[in-house]
Amino acid sequence: MTIYLNNVTLAYEKHPAVHHLNATINKGDWLAIVGPNGAGKSTLLNAMAGLTTVHEGSIEGLCSDTIAYLPQQAQLDKSFPITVFELVFTGLWAKLGYTKSLDAEDYKKCTAAIAAVGLHGFESRMINTLSGGQLQRSLFARVLLQDQPVILLDEPFNAIDRKTLIDLTELINQWHRGQRTIIMVTHDLDYVQAHCPKTLLLARECIGYGSTKNILTVDNLKRARQLSESFDEHAPWCQQGAA
Ligand code: ADP
Ligand code: MG
User: Which domains, and CATH codes, for the chain?
Assistant: First the structure.
């Protein structure tokens, strides 16, 4: 259950987004991935979820049926005409196959997951009528239903209210106590310092990886910002950060 990132390079049309990244993530870790906008955080999470091909190097210890993935809200089409129940139910597709219908047991699990995130009574609401917090709760219910040992969360606390933040943090704490591996992209450094024992600071390349208090130093954060600001979108392939 250990995850190995071996010299991982990720690219869009030969444009490098993440360079030569090495890290070992242990079972039960709660890891924050932080870094400036465009640092490659979502790209890395997508690659871990198996949604982006690894250009160079490899990711070991992950496969699609051990992962629950919560995408960044911006990646979602909120106008898609589905209800909360249907959205949460898609969490079972990997197990059931998307053509299968629900049996009574699945229905119960789905309803229980929706209740567990405080959305009882919202089952038949269309997702485009939800607040940011309610939509995020629905996505967490989907992760709950997926019931996987590795949980990938991309900016799970953007545009949500404080009560939702507290409730969803309690859910993550339960996953953490249950020895699930949690990998979370976030901008909220105070949150990371309060909750996440380990941090990966990314600015296309790795600025630091290890215990949060060793990584979130003033110097490291300054370096990440500088690297991000000086990054040349048109730099030749794999020049920056090349080993
Ligand atoms: P972050 O999540 O850290 O803000 P991303 O991983 O979304 O950063 O993006 C990293 C870089 O890759 C950015 O320069 C972004 O413009 C680029 N990028 C992201 N998605 C795509 C895509 N689908 N096609 C081309 N370039 C992309
Ligand atoms: Mg992102």
Answer: 3-76+149-230 (3.40.50.300)
